[in-house]
Write a structure and sequence with these properties.
The complex is a heterodimer. Chain A is an alpha/beta fold. Chain A is built from ten helices and nine strands. Chain A has a domain of 192 residues: Alpha-Beta Barrel (TIM Barrel), CATH 3.20.20. The relative contact order of chain A is 0.15. The chains are: A alpha/beta, B mainly alpha. Chains A and B meet through loops of A and α2 of B.
Chain lengths: 295, 219
């Protein structure tokens, strides 16, 4: 069955030390747990038909599963990301650990099922674990359709997404009025609006939270790379700015999973490592936000 | 409505700069040495037009029709659209340009001398392939006329400034082709600027040169 295996896909080579399992977080609606770091695909996996870049993406996915990752997120909006993910999964034999998170992204209710089927074909999976209404586009039509799919066993979880702080009022309304398993939103040390109402509300309503744009599409980590990592980052086990940001995000009790995107094996390993070791407490989180905000 | 105002061009950029530049590397390898040949032909066209050879205009228009169609299908549709769904419109723009060149060729226009036109033709054929190494990218990612959109648009604008339509319909076509070329340059400049690429200024400068020359000519 999809998404129920917890074991990492790849067996480390002989003599190599297997990385300890990353922090697991509970999906409130079922009690199932998933690793707190997932893999996004916005921009990074949209490499078209470039065989070299596709091979690079496959290596990222391989490393992701080898280090205990499970949730991969994509969307029909992301250009060639879906077929690139599909090619990577096929070459790895579609790891049993996979937790597939997709989206429906069309203003036409009639086109929704066909788009989902095309996405499924791109991924090469029998069904998706999670389907989300992308940026709340035509949610009135898509949500009932997704709930029907879930009731029929063709889908395990239903969610909604937004990004970069857009439509938070509507997101809040849907969190209050709809039955949802997941909500996806933007949250990082600089974009903290979700802390005010959405994250507490998601926790109260038992909705799992996926966090996107943790690095503001890389702008944040690129800007921070010019500055040395503060010595106190070691207190929370962070060895890079990226890990400090991810630890900040994961330390919020409402957050289930962050989905940083990358095309570099070293970065996917670094990201997953952020879900191991200590997380910052409230005071340390404020210190992280202040330090990054000041730079 | 107000939500749309919160979007920036970067929100629509779906690919990384290295992915974009790699498209040219793959395309050049697949079509080599067609790009080089097209650049040599356009360079020869520029010299002929500069020397006042009126008969050069019509073969030039036929060449531009073929090269615009090749860009639309070979590069934009096959390589660019898979990473940028918005590029379907750009493919349409180059198809329209190809048709426009064929129709303008049918109106039996004459060639004329144009310093701005020659400048644009030289920029397209000589300068554009050098932008890649100038920006510390490998030379195999150089942009050639007929393979890459920008130098093809530039060459089109340059040739356009060297032509004098003979009829009212030809004049309409002339302005339509100018509009398509300028639009292609603006789209490219916006994309490159959003990718924070230094060469974003180049298509913008080309559009300004073409527009300035066209307006001066009309005055």
């Amino acid at each position: 069955m999809l998404g129920l295996g917890l074991a990492p896909f790849a067996v480390p080579p002989a003599g190599a030390q297997a990385a300890p399992e990353p922090l697991q977080r509970r999906i409130a609606s079922t009690g199932e747990t998933i690793p707190a770091i997932g893999l996004g695909s916005w921009i990074t996996f949209n490499v078209g038909n470039d065989p070299r870049a596709r091979a690079q993406c496959t290596e990222v996915v391989r490393a992701f599963f080898a280090d205990g990752g499970r949730l991969i997120d994509s969307s029909p909006m992301y250009g060639s990301s879906q077929p690139v993910i599909g090619q990577a999964l096929a070459s790895l034999g579609t790891p049993a650990a996979l937790f597939s998170a997709e989206k429906v992204w069309t203003g036409s209710a009639a086109r929704g099922p066909a788009q989902i089927e095309q996405s499924r074909a791109h991924w090469g999976v029998p069904r998706f674990d999670l389907l989300q209404v992308h940026n709340l586009l035509a949610w009135e039509e898509h949500l009932p359709m997704l709930q029907r799919m879930k009731a029929e066993g063709r889908l395990r979880y239903v969610g909604i997404t937004t990004s970069e702080g857009r439509r938070h009022d509507e997101l809040e309304r849907l969190l209050r009025t709809q039955t949802l398993d997941f909500v996806q939103l933007t949250y990082n040390p600089l974009d903290r609006e979700a802390e005010l109402r959405l994250l507490p509300l998601a926790r109260e309503r038992g909705v799992a939270v996926i966090v996107n744009r943790t690095f503001r599409e890389g702008q944040l980590t690129r800007a921070l790379a010019r500055h040395p990592l503060p010595g106190w980052a070691a207190e929370v086990g962070a060895t890079s700015w990226a890990q400090l940001i991810l630890k900040f995000v994961l330390a919020h009790p409402a957050v289930t999973c962050a989905i940083p995107a990358t095309r570099q094996v070293a970065h996917v390993r670094e990201n997953l490592a952020a879900a191991r070791g200590p997380l910052p407490d409230a005071a340390q989180r404020e210190r992280i936000a202040r330090a990054i905000g000041a730079l | 409505m107000t939500e749309w105002l919160s979007y920036r061009p970067s929100d629509f950029l779906m690919f990384a700069p290295d992915t974009y530049w790699r498209l040219f590397e793959l395309h050049n390898a697949a079509w080599w040495p067609l790009g080089l040949l097209a650049n040599v032909l356009v360079l020869a066209l520029a010299l002929a037009l500069w020397q006042g050879h009126e008969h050069a205009a019509r073969p030039g228009m036929a060449l531009m029709a073929a090269l615009s169609a090749l860009v639309a299908w070979g590069f934009v549709w096959r390589l660019y659209v898979p990473i940028n769904w918005g590029a379907q419109a750009l493919a349409g723009l180059y198809v329209l340009a190809a048709l426009g060149w064929l129709m303008l060729n049918g109106t039996a226009g004459r060639a004329r001398r144009s310093r701005a036109g020659t400048l644009l033709l030289l920029m397209a054929s000589l300068s554009w392939p050098l932008l890649a190494p100038a920006d510390a990218r490998p030379i195999v990612q150089a942009e050639f006329i007929g393979l890459a959109p920008d130098p093809t648009a530039l060459a089109g604008l340059g040739l356009l400034l060297h032509t004098r339509p003979a009829s009212r319909a030809g004049r309409w076509l002339w302005w339509a082709l100018l509009g398509l070329g300028v639009l292609a340059c603006l789209v490219s400049a916006t994309t490159l600027a959003t990718m924070e690429q230094a060469q974003a200024f180049a298509p913008l400068a080309a559009a300004a040169i073409a527009l300035g020359a066209a307006i001066r000519r009309r005055a």
